[in-house]
Design goal:
With 410 residues, the protein is of the alpha+beta class. The protein is built from ten helices and 22 strands.
C-alpha cells in the first residue's frame, strides 16, 4: 500500500501496537489520553521532554474548562483554586463573570500549568494511559488502515509505534503537523512582549500600565518573585530559538518604566508574539491535530490553554467511538467542523485584543470607544461569553462513560 504521508525512516522489527498515539504530554495531550482510556481505548503518549516542565507558563482556567474538569472529577484532584480576578479584553477591564452570572464557575481561576499537568498525568496514567517520556518523533507514515510513527528514545535508540490514529498535541511547532503536511496559513508576528519571573526586586504591582514608551505589568507571586511583562512601542519581533536574555528584559523595562531591575535574579524568561495561524484542516486521514498544534495565537488572557483543553474534550469521545466501531467517520468530521469554527472565532478576538493591548498611541481612540462599549451589559456579556468558552451550544457528550474502575491496564 503506498503511503499517504511523508515516509518515515525504515527500522527493523515490528512496531509496538496501540489504538491511538498522542504526541505531546502537555495538558491537551493528557486530557485527551484520559478521555480515550475512560472509553476503553488503548493509548500511548509520546513526549520528547524527559521530565515535566516546571515553568509557570499558562495559569488561567475559564468557565467552560472548569466545567470539563469538574465532569471528570479533576477539580477534586486540583484542590481549591483561587479566583483569577475580573479579567480583561485587550487590557480593558472586563468582568468575566458576566458570561454566566450565578454559574458556579463564573469568572476565571488560577492554576499554574505544572499543577494542572501533574493532576492530569496522575489521572490519565491511573486509567491506564502509557506516557513515554524522552521519545522524539522523527517520522510518520500513513496507510489506509494504520499510522506508523518512528522516533528516537533518548539514550536508547530508534523506536516505532503503530496505531489506528495519531493525534498531534505537540504545540505550535508541531512535528506531527509538519510531518503529515497540514497547511498552516495565517499571519507572521508584528508585536512582541517579553516576560520574566524575577527574584529580589521590589517594583510596585501594576496591571497593563500604558506609558509613552510601551506597556508594563508586574505581579508579585506568593513566593516573593515578581512576574514582569513588558512591551516597547515600535519594537519589532526578532526570530528566536530560545528565550530572551535577562539583559534584554532589563533594558526594555527601564525604557518603559524608568526602573532598574538588573540587580534581580531571573527565575524564568520568555517572549511571546502575535503570530496568528490556524490549520486549514484538523483531520487529515488518520492524523488529527488539537491544541496549539492546530492553532497558534498570542496567549492573551489564558485563552490558548483553554481553547486547547476544549479541543481535547470535544475530540476524545468522538475518536473513541471511531476506534471502537461505535460510530462512523462523521464524528471526526464533526470535531473538525466544530473546533475549527470555534478556533477561528477565538483567534479573531485575540488579534483584536493584541492590537488594543500592545498598540501605540494610534490605538488610543479605539481603546476609548471599546471602553465605552464595555460599560454596556450586552457588549460586556457578549465578549465575556466568547472568552469563557460559553458563547456556543455546549458539546453535551464530552465525558465518555468511565471504565469500571481506575487503574485498569491498557
Amino acid at each position: 500500500m503506498a503511503p499517504l504521508s511523508r515516509p518515515a525512516p525504515a527500522y527493523a522489527g515490528a512496531p509496538e501496537r496501540t489504538d491511538v498515539i498522542v504526541v505531546g504530554a502537555g495538558p491537551v495531550g493528557l486530557l485527551l489520553a484520559g478521555d480515550l482510556r475512560r472509553a476503553g481505548v488503548r493509548v500511548t503518549v509520546l513526549e520528547q521532554l524527559t521530565a515535566p516542565a516546571t515553568a509557570s507558563r499558562a495559569s488561567t482556567l475559564h468557565t467552560r474548562t472548569m466545567e470539563l474538569l469538574a465532569e471528570r472529577g479533576l477539580l477534586a484532584r486540583l484542590g481549591p483554586l483561587p479566583p483569577g480576578g475580573p479579567g480583561h479584553f485587550g487590557g480593558l477591564p472586563l468582568d468575566l463573570r458576566a458570561a454566566a452570572p450565578g454559574h458556579p464557575y463564573a469568572g476565571q481561576f488560577k492554576c499554574p500549568q505544572p499543577r494542572l499537568e501533574a493532576a492530569l498525568h496522575a489521572w490519565a496514567t491511573g486509567l491506564g494511559a502509557r506516557v513515554r517520556r524522552g521519545h522524539a518523533v522523527t517520522g510518520l507514515r500513513q496507510y489506509a488502515d494504520r499510522v506508523v510513527v518512528s522516533g528516537i528514545e533518548l539514550g536508547s535508540g530508534p523506536r516505532r509505534f503503530a496505531a489506528s490514529y495519531v493525534v498531534g498535541c505537540d504545540g505550535e511547532r508541531s512535528t506531527v503537523r509538519q510531518l503529515a503536511g497540514f497547511d498552516f496559513p495565517g499571519d507572521d508576528p508584528s508585536l512582541e512582549m517579553l516576560r520574566a519571573d524575577v527574584a529580589g526586586i521590589g517594583v510596585p504591582n501594576r496591571r497593563f500600565e500604558r506609558r509613552p514608551n510601551g506597556l508594563a505589568t508586574a505581579h508579585r507571586w506568593p513566593d516573593g518573585t515578581t512576574r514582569i511583562m513588558v512591551h516597547v512601542h515600535g519594537s519589532v519581533p526578532v526570530p528566536r530559538t530560545g528565550p530572551p536574555s535577562f539583559d534584554e528584559v532589563v533594558a526594555a523595562w527601564a525604557k518603559v518604566t524608568g526602573e532598574s531591575i538588573g540587580h534581580g535574579t531571573p527565575v524564568w524568561l520568555d517572549a511571546f508574539d502575535d503570530t496568528s495561524r490556524q490549520a486549514a484542516r484538523y483531520v487529515k486521514g488518520r492524523v488529527i491535530l488539537a491544541g496549539d498544534a492546530a492553532h497558534t495565537q498570542m496567549p492573551v488572557g489564558g485563552q490558548a490553554l483553554n481553547l486547547g483543553l476544549q479541543d481535547a474534550a470535544a475530540l476524545g469521545h468522538r475518536l473513541a467511538d471511531r476506534v471502537t466501531g461505535r460510530a462512523a467517520d462523521a464524528g471526526l468530521e464533526e470535531y473538525e467542523r466544530l473546533r475549527h469554527r470555534v478556533g477561528a472565532r477565538t483567534l479573531t478576538g485575540i488579534r483584536a485584543q493584541s492590537r488594543l493591548l500592545l498598540g501605540g498611541p494610534e490605538v488610543e481612540g479605539l481603546r476609548t470607544v471599546m471602553a465605552e462599549l464595555l460599560d454596556l451589559d450586552s457588549a460586556a456579556g457578549y465578549l465575556a461569553r466568547i472568552i469563557s468558552g460559553v458563547d456556543h451550544e455546549p458539546d453535551t457528550t464530552t465525558s465518555p462513560t468511565p471504565l469500571p474502575h481506575e487503574g485498569v491496564a491498557a
